[in-house]
Amino acid sequence: MLVERLTSQGFRFHSNDGLRVPVVPFRPATPAAPRLVSWLEAEFGPIPLALSSWIRLVGDVWLVGTHPEWSESSYADPLVIELEGTRFPQESMAGFFAAEYEAWEEEVSDDPQVGSFVLPAAPDRLHKANVSGGDSYGLRLPDGGIDGIFVTEAEMPFVSYLNMAFESGGFPAETAGGGRARVRKSLAEGLLAL
Fold first, then answer.
1. I need a labelling partner for 153 at 20 to 30 A (CA). Which of 78, 79, 84, 173 fits?
2. Strand 137-141, strand 149-151: pairing
3. CB-hemisphere CA count at 13 Å for 19?
4. pTM above 0.85, yes or no
């Protein structure tokens, strides 16, 4: 629904770099999604039900782009959850996640205060706006709970993060720009909480 509304408003979905290559904003889960879930569980231990469900039932979402009436929309932390990696079919998400885990293990060996592993799911809000930023957003693993902890600049349950994003039409961070309130309201209208 958000993709349809954004498209009808003239939003251009594109990469988060100077090239602004067009991007398909929603890619449904593929038949390979259950294999990725099984691999994640085998490699990292239990994963939250909400994470497993997102991978198997939803797919990948990329709402980065440019809105004709809200030029600062890319600074509003557009909703991105890319776990299956369908935007990059030539890349192995298992390989990417394994490399991230190895880097985390090295970091933990240097500093035991680092905390648990965060499975990357999205660039941080600054990288989405093509500005050098911080660590990727993601989910703490292992976690055998229902919801899971989503790590952004703060930590919150994954479903709470999704609801916050949907309540703001897919753009949860505050920005400047005259059209933001009207655009967000039009995008969020009628969306139900998870």
1. 84
2. antiparallel
3. 4
4. yes
